[in-house]
Amino acid sequence: MISFGIALLFVAASLFLMPTKARGCTCIVVGKNASATGRVLVGHNEDDPGRCVMEHHLVPPADRPVGTATSFEPCSASIDRSGRSLGYIWSQARSVPALSGADCFLNEKGVFVASDSCRRSRQDNEPDLSNGGLVYGLRISIAEKARSAREGIEIAAALIERYGYDNTGRCYIIADAEEAWLLQVIKGKHYCAKRVSDDEVAFIPNHYTIRDIAPGEEGVLMSRGFIEMCEKKGWLTVKDDCFDFARTVQDGSSVNLPGNLYRNRHALSRITGTDWSEEEDLPFSVEPRHPMDVKDVMGVLRDHYEGSPDDVRGKWDSSPHYTEVRRICTGTTLGALVIRFRDRPELNTLWTSTGRPCTSPFVPWYGGILGMPQEFLVEDNESSLKRHFHFTPKDMAYDLSIPWWEIQQFQSLLDGQFDHNRNFETVKNHVGEVEKNWLDEDDEIAEKARALMEKDEEEGLLLLTGETAKKARQSMDLVRYMTGRLPRTELSTDSKRISYKSREEEITLYIKSDARPVEDRLFFGQGMQSPESWATAIRGSLRRRDSDWEVSFRVRELTEKCVPCYSDFWLYGVDDSGSPIVGSVVIDVVEESTACNKKGSP
Could you give the domains of the chain? Predict the structure, then answer.
């Protein structure tokens, strides 16, 4: 018989392995006539809560034998992957639990795919799934097979109708140089896809956005039997022979959530130059006030609503990233992408911000690169795909040999003193200066590569590979430079290991500061977790200790939301002069109850 204690451990471990859906992403799609480039532009912020690692891969083309099939999530349908698979750039969000809906792809034919959650679709639906349905297999099938955005829609539609979609609601953005489609899916075998008008711009927060449509309308594709199903269930919202897809399928609990409306209204204001009411239904797409370029799209993805009445800051510091008002660039933003299409897929520029786009430059990655910058390599692509749904807390461990954790260190250091001494403005200026040079050079590099490719294709691709690698190194040099400029409070602890969610332990920090810390404004927690969930100082524990101040925290409160692994833990606060206290220590969080004694000693 399995003991009760062992059973509990098994359940806890299983929770870390169960796949979850990405939440909170943001996307903007610019039609080719609304774009200053004359081609489609797409921008995407990847937002996922908790402790994650973003990795980027260059996956080569492959030929697979007949009968090759893969089941991605546990208990999901096995998807046929036989035949020729296209090569692609893959942006992977590594997380515990695994994420089914977070990864983005740009393939060798110039087809881009990303997604935003639309949770939730109607809960009074009994979804029809075959063989367990699919989620992750949808995006990777598009990346591997689609030679155009329209073919990507056809591939996705066929898979959904065959297997069903095992998610509470999602919007897929599938785009190439000439057109972009939004595929909005409910749980089960039904969907609606709409082409973004060439003259307009679409913005997608985290709800359904396809509004009034008519069956058979050009640029619209719906699943078979969808309208009949809606009529049978009493869902259908009809208006002048059209129906509102978003209102029909969105669950009542998810209609007009503030976090979605904030982003949608502010994005539309930037795009159109006019204010949008909180009461009105926001449109699927709008005409921009001027043709939008790459920099305009980057600006939308970086928006914190600065200078508006919605720019309300939190109680613990001046950062906009963790507040009640959800921003476009927010605390859970793991990275951002802007795809600038050209007439040859090899010359496409995938502008990539690793980390939040407000504090990280967009690095130009070219579609024809022959190798991935070493700065972004964590694990080879084959192993990463096999392990995507089997990562463990150890994969989230703090490791400064991996540039991702250098970026996270910089972001955490800045967030605790965001507006102090104009820190953010200084960072923004440095990022803007570097990025301006890269934007100015982009067309020139693409044309130089084009000329080389006409004579020797490999020479042109080597140029693109070298430019991408050089700028990736420069981006990390900038992160290290800015990290070195920010003040850091010296912090230490005797506790090198603590027990996950221990109800007995306390941990004591030693703060080197001449001024007295304000005890009730000290917050301590794991990096990449919201400071709103961090531990507060034990009342009355602050005291002078030689040249330091010591203060204690409860381990249970400290680890309530954390991932148990070797981690960076951050202290945010202020001293009695009003100056910020920002420092970190590294602690191993273990799940064994014997890690430390009651006071947290090793």
Answer: 4-60+87-120+166-211+253-387+395-480 (no CATH), 491-590 (2.60.40.10)
